[in-house]
Amino acid sequence: MKPTLFSASRSTFHRLLIEQNVLTVDAQGVASNADKDNVDSKAIAEEMLSTMGKPNVGVKIPAQSLGSRFEKQCLAFVQDTFPRLKHLRPGTWVVTTPSGQFKRGITDTEQYAHLATLSEACEKQPELAAILGQDYLIKPDIIILRETEEDVKINAIERLVDESTTNLASLRKANGGKSIFHASISCKFTMRSDRAQNSRSEALNLIRNRKGRTPHIVVVTAEPLPSRLASLALGTGDLDFVYHIALPELLKAVNKRGSADSRELLKIMIEGKRLRDISDLPLDLAV
C-alpha cells in the first residue's frame, strides 16, 4: 500500500537529515545526537539511528552548521505538511524563518508589533534598556503566520461584516492589522540543560509579551536521552508539546537498550501528553 503523505514526508525528513550529515556517526560509532560522555545516550542514539537509515561515518560538521541544517530540514517538513491541511484549517499561511526569504520576524505580527516600538525606545534611552533587558526580543527558529483576509472572502458565503461593525478584529484586512502569529517552532538538535532553559524562557516571553492570542509554542528535537527530554517536556504552562524527530524509533531503542529509569520516564512523557512524534505536529498546528 502506498504510504500516506505525512508518512512519506516523515521518511524524507529522516533521509535528508542523514544525507545532509545532520545524523552521522563518528569513527567510534557514536551518533551525532548522542552525548559521547553518557553511556545511555550513546546506546539509545545508536539503536535509534540504526532503524532510521545508514548514516555517514566519520563526518563531523561544526555545531552551528549542524543546528542550521537541522532547522532547515524541520522547516522543509512543516512547509511540506501543514499547508496540506487547508480543508481543516482554512486561511492564507506563511511558514518561514525570521532570517529567511521573507525577513519576517515576530515584530511584524499583530500580537508583537509593539515590541518594535519598545526596541526603538531602548535604543534611544540606554537606561530603559538596562531596566527592561533584552528578553522581550524573541527570535523563534520557525514561524507560521496567518495573513489577514479581505472582506470579499469573509463575506463569500453570506454577508458577515460591513463598515459599521467588526472594526477591530485582527483577521479583517480592512482594519489594517498585521499578520497573525500562529505558531513558534524552536529547533533544538540536542537538549542540554542550558538549551532547555532557553526554550522555556523564549516560550514564557512569547506568552507574557503578547497582545492578543497566544501562538502555538513547540520544540522539535533529536535528543535521545529521556532525562534530558524531560527537562523540557515535563511541566505545563509554557510549551504546548515537545516533538521528537523519531518517537517510535526512540521508544524501541529505549525499551531495548535504555535503563529502567529511562523507560519509565519516556512512558510518563508520552502517556502524560507532553512528548509527541514529528508526524503529529502538522495536525496539532491545525487546531
Polypeptide structure, described:
This protein has 287 residues and is α/β, with parallel strands linked by helices. Helix content is 42%, strand content 11%. The protein is built from 11 helices and 6 strands. It has helices at residues 5-19, 39-50, 63-81, 114-124, 126-132, 151-154, 193-208, 226-233, 247-257, 260-271, 281-285, and strands at residues 93-96, 142-146, 180-188, 216-221, 241-244, 275-277. A 6-stranded mixed sheet has the order 1-2-3-4-5-6. The longest helix has 19 residues, at 63-81. The model has no long low-confidence stretch (mean pLDDT 91).
Q: Which SSEs are present, and which pair or pack?
A:
Layout: H1 5-19, H2 39-50, H3 63-81, E1 93-96, H4 114-124, H5 126-132, E2 142-146, H6 151-154, E3 180-188, H7 193-208, E4 216-221, H8 226-233, E5 241-244, H9 247-257, H10 260-271, E6 275-277, H11 281-285
Parallel strand pairs: 3-4, 4-5, 5-6
Antiparallel strand pairs: 1-2, 2-3
Helix pairs in contact: 1-3, 2-9, 4-5, 7-8, 8-10
Structural descriptors:
287 residues, alpha/beta, globular
What is the topology, as strand order, of the major beta sheet? 1-2-3-4-5-6
Query: How many strands in all?
Result: 6
The coarse overall form would be globular
Q: How many angstroms separate the termini? A: 29 Å
Roughly what is the average pLDDT, rounded to an integer? 91
Number of helices in the DSSP assignment:
11
Tell me the β content.
5-15%
| Rounded radius of gyration (Å) | 21 Å
Helix content: 40-55%
The run of helices and strands is: HHHEHHEHEHEHEHHEH
Biggest beta-sheet profile: 6 strands, mixed
Poorly predicted runs are: none
Class by SSE composition: alpha/beta
